[in-house]
Amino acid sequence: MEFTQALPTTSASADRSKELLSNAVFGHKQKATLKERLFAMWFRQLVYTQIWEDPVMDMKALNLGEDDHVVTIASGGCNALSYLTANPAKVTAVDLNHAHVSLVKLKMAGLRALPNYDDFFQFFGVAQASSNVRVYKTLIAPKLDADSRHYWEGGPIGFRRIRMFAKGFYNYGLLGQLIGIIHWGAKLHGVKLNDLLEQPSQQAQEKWFDEKVAKIFDSKLMAKICSSPFALYNLGIPPSQHNALCDEQPDNMAQVLKERARRLATVAPIKDNYFAWQAFGRRYDATGQSALPPYLMCSHYAQVKANVDKLSIEQSNIRDAIARMDLHSVDAVVLLDAQDWMSNEEITALWREITRAAKPGARVIFRTAGVTSPVDVCFTGDLQGKWVRDHATSDALGPTDRSGIYGAFHLYRLQA
Fold it and tell me: How far apart are CA 120 and CA 110, in angstroms?
């Protein structure tokens, strides 16, 4: 089914992405490096088809209640939608990237337009059927705003972006493409990464990784590739985060990534870890209900569909979004790993806005590429003594994150 409408090559949202990402990556500097400019340009594309932070762990840390207002960075939208299973009063999602905003809006429109769970899962869970293009045009598109339709019905000549859902959506995006290259490279070493999905136990997963996959990271070629930040831009790792990830020793990056990949492959039984399914299998488990994001599970479908109007999405810097919110109107904030991009001054400014908007007892969670929290040194002046890291909860939950790719998890609480 062809789209005949002529679309302009750019949109206001795409232009807004350019501005927001440039400001986020190097806006605080008088002069940006070539690496930073290239990353800001690269990141304006669809990066994540799925978010890579574990929403189950998020909800354990935040202990969401029915009166809570959650503010989160959107990314692929999986977590913002999954928080609806906790039945909060409101979820506000924000993102710099218009592609991610358009993806969240597509998922929300799918919840509103598709008649049942099977149709919803076929479109967003399996995401690989030619009929999805027809479903989009007849059912979902009428529920979308003009900017989102522009994104999904636009794209390179001869390939509208919505056709990703016909060809296998989770193979796309910068990260999906990089995972495909990694699978190709593993085959050169005689390794089929999707064999992880057949392992009968966590112990078998560990044995398989150590015998089959570890050697790939130990190769000279992998060490060379990983030492360059350019090779990791598809992971969404900016130059500043690259330095934190390898502790400013690029030669160690291959071993750091090996340790993170091993954790991803072994942190949970494969039947329960949808992050490992995506990394090693390039898909979700279409036969079960445990290796899925909560919003895609059949058991949560009715609740997520009923609560979809509690979710709003906007294209914005998260600090600016919170600055527009009322005093004492926010209960929980999810920053993902965004602070790894920021200078100390930017972190201080962000937390001043969070503190102004936060209700008593508010919670903030975030991940870091390294182990150390970047915020404590920024709590000076009027922020001093306001926020305290919950060490017990942070350190207990961090190792359970099924995505396994971060150095640490941090939960902070607003003090009375």
Answer: 7
Which residue, among 373, 305, 307, 371, has the nearest Cα to 339 in the 3D structure? Answer: 373
Coil, strand or helix: which one is 290? coil
Gap between the Cα atoms of 19 and 164, Å rounded: 26
CB 318 within 8 A of CB 354: no
Amino acid identity of residue 175, one-letter, is L
Burial 219-244 (b: 16+ CB within 10 A, else e): eeebbebbbebebbbbbbbbbbbbbb
Task: Measure the CA–CA gap between 400 and 388, rounded to whole angstroms.
Answer: 22
Give me the amino acid identity at 239: P
Return the residue matching tokens 């390039």: 282
How does pLDDT run across 111-130, given as a tens digit for each residue?
Answer: 999 999 999 999 999 999 99
The answer to whether 402 and 276 have CB atoms below 8 angstroms apart is yes
pLDDT of residue 18: 56
d(C-alpha 338, C-alpha 94), whole Å: 12
- Beta bridge mates, 94: 73, 314
Averaged confidence pLDDT in the chain: 88
d(CA 223, CA 258): 11
Q: What is the DSSP pairing of strand 408-414 with strand 358-368?
A: antiparallel
pLDDT in tens, 155-198: 887 789 999 999 999 999 988 888 898 899 899 899 999 999 99
Q: How far apart are CA 160 and CA 155, in angstroms?
A: 5
Q: Work out the widest C-alpha separation in the chain, in whole angstroms.
A: 60
Beta bridge partners of 69: 90
Note if the pTM is more than 0.85: yes
